[in-house]
Design goal:
single chain; 182 residues; mainly alpha; two-stranded antiparallel ribbon; 7 helices; 51% helix; 9% strand
């Protein structure tokens, strides 16, 4: 049984199970809104699914606020395309309220149970690049855009954390400790 703290959603699944976090647990780890008890999906498959889901969530939010010209451009984009659009508070509010985001947040909790030791070198690169991007966008959705000065950006990166296979990494640790070391 799952207790989804931010949205009140309960989910049962044969592929994973959750438990509510203890009442005294106050965490700043973005993917610990629930405690993942079991998960049967591979780390790389999960990272690809999460990145795809998050991309669609952001794309949907952009489409709601896009001008007619931006909207026609958005509809022609494929997975490898680049598009620039300013993030506005209304977009983040829409994302946080969406059922797709609540589903993403629940699925992101499965990262707590991935088996990092079983990944080969190529899988580690795929997993950590995907997970860094997922965590960065997730942090923007929860906290808003990082500040413009170095201190504010650094504070944002240090305080934005993900639990990966039982180890908690900040965005700084993922970028400078893991990705630059690969």
């Amino acid at each position: 049984m799952c207790m989804f703290i931010r949205g009140g959603l309960g989910v049962d699944s044969p592929d994973f199970s959750y438990a509510p976090p203890s009442a005294d647990l106050k965490t700043d780890v973005l993917n610990e809104v629930v405690v993942c008890v079991t998960s049967s999906i591979s780390a790389t498959d999960l990272s690809v699914q999460l990145l795809t889901k998050l991309r669609e969530i952001v794309r949907t939010a952009c489409e709601k606020l896009a001008s007619p010209g931006e909207l026609s451009l958005l509809k022609t984009l494929n997975a490898g395309s680049w598009f620039s659009m300013s993030i506005v508070p209304d977009m983040l509010v829409d994302i946080l309220a969406s059922s797709a985001y609540k589903s993403f947040e629940l699925q992101a909790s499965q990262l707590q149970k991935v088996d990092l030791a079983s990944l080969d070198e190529n899988e580690k690169v795929l997993f950590f690049v995907n997970t860094y991007n997922i965590a960065y966008v997730h942090a923007i959705i929860i906290k808003g855009l990082p500040g413009k000065n170095l201190y504010e950006r650094t504070a944002f990166m240090r305080s934005s954390k993900y639990n990966l296979g039982g180890y908690v990494f900040s965005l700084v640790e993922l970028e400078h400790g893991i990705l630059r070391g690969m």
